[in-house]
Design a protein that fits this description.
The complex is a heterodimer of chains A (304) and B (138). Chain A has 15 helices and seven strands. By secondary structure, chain A is of the alpha/beta class. Chain A has a five-stranded parallel β-sheet with strand order 2-3-4-1-5, with helices on both faces. Chain A has a two-stranded parallel sheet with strand order 6-7. In chain A, helix 4 packs parallel to helix 5 and helix 11 crosses helix 13 (252-274). The longest helix of chain A is centred in the C-terminal third of the chain and has 23 residues, at 252-274. Chain A is globular and about 75 Å long. Chain A starts with a helix and ends in an 11-residue tail after the last helix. Chain B is α+β, with helices and mostly antiparallel strands and 138 residues long. Helix content of chain B is 20%, strand content 34%. Chain B has helices spanning 16-28, 62-75; strands at residues 32-38, 49-55, 79-86, 93-101, 109-116, 120-127. In chain B, the strands form two sheets. A four-stranded antiparallel β-sheet of chain B has the order 2-1-3-4. A two-stranded antiparallel ribbon of chain B has the order 5-6. The longest helix of chain B is centred in the middle third of the chain and has 14 residues, at 62-75. Chain B starts with 15 loop residues before the first helix and ends in an 11-residue tail after the last strand. The model of chain B has no long low-confidence stretch (mean pLDDT 93). The chains are: A alpha/beta (304), B alpha+beta (138). The A-B interface holds A 103-104, 106, 131-133, 135-137, 171, 174-175 and B 55, 57-63, 66-67.
């Protein structure tokens, strides 16, 4: 039976080394970079690795003339704010470019305002303009659910959605669309727009970071700016993260960035107040316990 | 009579993937690509109708091919051409143009001969199709 199949499809005896292919295409490098530069996000990384493998296998099958379908690559990224959706989308564009699924590999990041017009007849050209710009690359629609406003019948968002769906279907080889947003609202969005759900093959969820991961992220950010915590400051920062997490409007990595910005502000202020003569590089780049401790979060207030 | 204007006009018509390749070349050169159409193909008719704006910031030719196909849907029986404008100092003009769509039947041009001053002759050409009013030419 198997032998017969082999005869009818004329499978060539050639062989392909998938692993070599992985390294040669530069995909492995992007994946490694993803592993190294992004902290946590294990489920996301696994999903991306899986997707990359699938696409590579598809390519290999194509080479042998086996039946292959040009896969649907449109994706949805759902997760809380600050969990790295945009960053991963950028990497995704690079990855798809290396795999040869998009020709240019640039990322066009838009929100509702870039797609939906203000008066009748304004929306279609606007949406098309954006879609054309994204062709050959990846279109990243942040907070995609704002496109759909069920409470307003005459909302132009619906028009943008229709054009999007049409292009997503007809120009599948030309661009990849990634929808992103908070999980709960994305789910309602997909429920009310079944057309989107069926056209999106990969739903990737971004989990929240743990406190330790957030600390690591904070340390990385400081590192890039040539700052560092003292041991005590690091402990305080852990406390800070725990307190801040329990408060409203916590935005993961973004909140960390903001907290560090304010800590740097306090540090600068402290250096002036202390006024102990000339300072050295060490002093200029160290954040101390009090720089964190003075945050309003510790006195029960909201820090933002 | 097949209209011979612009590049590639002595070759068989380009298909979409060939158009894509040519347009991609233009984009990579940094030229602004635009689509134009007309039903009056007289060689002195320099300015055709614009199909949308020139596309300055599309990195990929798929956008242009998409617009060409949109234009074909509406003006399938017109001439459609692609222009590439080079804005670099010193050039500031069209570098490249080629026809991507033509009517099914091209009746060609009529030569009008006019006798002037004794035996001198003056020549001009008119498109047969352009005799009909605009919109009813092909």
């Amino acid at each position: 039976m198997v032998a017969e199949n082999l005869n009818t499809t004329k499978i060539s005896a050639e062989k392909i080394d998938l692993h070599a292919e992985l390294i040669e295409s530069g995909v492995e490098q992007v994946l490694l970079e993803l592993d190294n530069t992004l902290i946590g996000l294990e489920p996301v990384k696994t999903r991306i690795r899986e997707t990359a493998s699938l696409l590579l296998v598809e390519k290999a099958r194509e080479k042998f003339g086996l039946v292959h379908e040009s896969p649907t690559l449109h994706m949805s990224f759902s997760g809380n704010p600050g969990t790295g959706k945009t960053t991963v989308a950028l990497r995704m564009a690079e990855l798809l470019h290396k795999l040869g699924y998009v020709r240019k590999g640039h990322l066009v990041s838009v929100t509702r305002d870039d797609l939906v017009g203000q008066y009748i007849g304004h929306t279609a050209p606007k949406t098309k303009e954006v879609l054309k710009k994204a062709m050959g690359g990846v279109l990243f629609i942040d907070e995609a659910y704002y496109l759909y406003r069920p409470e307003n019948e005459r909302d132009y968002g619906q028009e943008a959605i229709e054009i999007l769906l049409q292009v997503m279907e007809n120009n599948r080889d030309d661009l990849v669309v990634i929808l992103a947003g908070y999980k709960a609202r994305m789910n309602t969005f997909f429920e009310s727009n079944p057309g989107f759900r069926s056209r999106i093959a990969h739903h990737i969820e971004f989990p929240d970071y743990t406190t330790e991961e957030l600390l690591e992220i904070g340390n990385n950010m400081l590192d890039q700016l040539n700052y560092s915590f003292t041991k005590k400051a690091e402990q305080t920062f852990l406390e800070y993260i725990d307190l801040r997490k329990a408060q409203a409007h916590f935005a993961n990595a973004r909140s960390i960035r903001n907290a560090l910005d304010r800590a740097r502000l306090r540090q600068a202020n402290r250096l002036f107040k202390e006024n102990k003569g000339p300072v050295d590089a060490q002093k200029l780049s160290t954040l101390e316990e009090n720089d964190i401790r003075e945050s309003r979060v510790f006195s029960g207030g909201i820090d933002n | 009579m097949k209209l011979r204007q612009g590049a590639f006009s002595y070759l068989p018509d380009l298909d979409d993937s060939q158009i894509h390749t040519q347009v991609q070349y233009c984009i990579d050169q940094g030229w602004a690509v635009s689509v134009e159409y007309t039903d009056d193909p007289h060689p002195r008719n320099t300015y055709w109708e614009m199909w949308g704006h020139p596309m300055f910031d599309n990195p990929d030719a798929a956008a242009v091919v998409y617009e060409i196909n949109e234009c074909r849907k509406q003006f399938g029986d017109h001439y459609i051409r692609v222009l590439a404008f080079d804005s670099t100092h010193g050039w500031e003009s069209i570098r490249f143009s080629f026809i991507v769509n033509r009517p099914k039947e091209e009746p060609g041009f009529h030569v009008t001969r006019e006798e002037i001053k004794g035996r001198s002759m003056r020549y001009t050409i008119n498109s047969y199709a352009a005799k009909n009013p605009e919109g009813k030419r092909y």
